[in-house]
Write a structure and sequence with these properties.
Helix content is 38%, strand content 14%. By secondary structure, it is an alpha/beta fold.
Length: 271
């Protein structure tokens, strides 16, 4: 994809001649399963589109360089969503000095969300969530990392989009941030997913494992936003197994026994 701007000395000069701060060439949105990472992915794409004046910002899912299409050059910004970013993707991020937004969630709730959405056996979900937690921990040493906790309700909280813009060092007005946030409310995401379903993007019978290649939304992507749902859905022994498998992650991000308990109530959330 050819670049639409000429980038020099940390600024971008659009075809009209006005200089503005350069947007990052690569942004990594990595998250625990069911943690709001797809919401982050779409918010970042919208912010970059506004900041650069481009109609569309390319984005895709990849856990490894092997998952990326072949590029001759990286012109326009690229946004990558990942759950288990491997060494090759972490190295690419380091080379590009990419800002990384990491979304986390109580791993017990992540297991329940994954099992309910995709119909996977709980033991398989435990392994996937633990593997994701291990990879996310490896991002903590990167120089530019913003951590967002699902339990804080960031997908619906006022100011999250503006916070992302500041982290990405993008000059985006408050009104534009509000417009982006309004397009990503649970209601609007449901409408988007319904439109995609009618268009046949998810197949004749919507398959929760399929996603829209542009937005990465799945059928039924908007969850109930409940915190602590594992108490009703997991046996105590299974919940303890999840904590044991993600112990380092839990200590780092404040989950498990002794951690500050978030509010049990929640609203719908685009994950």
């Amino acid at each position: 994809m050819p670049p639409s701007d000429d980038t020099t000395a940390g600024t971008t000069r659009a075809r009209g001649g006005a200089a503005r701060p350069a947007a990052p060439r690569l942004v990594l949105c990595a998250g625990q399963f069911g943690s709001g990472s797809t919401w982050v992915f779409n918010a970042v794409r919208a912010l970059l589109a506004h900041a650069t004046g481009q109609a569309e910002i390319r984005g895709l899912f990849a856990d490894s360089l092997r998952d990326l299409p072949e590029f001759t050059r990286l012109g326009s910004p690229l946004v990558v969503k990942a759950h288990r970013p491997d060494r090759s993707l972490r190295v690419l991020g380091a080379i590009y000095r990419a800002p990384m937004v990491v979304s986390v969630r109580d791993p017990r709730d992540a297991v329940v969300s994954m099992a309910q959405r995709f119909g996977e056996p709980v033991p398989d979900c435990v392994r996937a969530v633990a593997d994701c937690a291990r990879h996310l921990m490896l991002l903590r040493e990167q120089p530019r990392v913003l951590v967002l906790r699902y339990e804080d309700g960031f997908t619906t909280a006022p100011g999250t989009v503006a916070r992302l813009a500041a982290f990405l060092r993008l000059a985006v007005a408050e009104a534009a941030c509000a417009t982006i946030a309004a397009a990503l409310t649970p209601e609007r995401v449901r409408e988007t997913v319904a439109t995609l379903e009618r268009a046949g993007v998810y197949g004749a019978t919507p398959d929760p494992r399929r996603h829209d290649p542009k937005t990465l939304w799945h059928p039924g992507h908007v969850g109930d936003g409940r915190v602590g749902k594992y108490r009703e859905a997991l046996a105590p022994a299974a919940a303890a197994e999840v904590l044991a498998a993600t112990a380092t992650y839990c200590r780092a991000f404040g989950y498990g026994p002794g951690a500050a308990a978030p509010a049990a109530a929640g609203g719908a959330s685009a994950t």
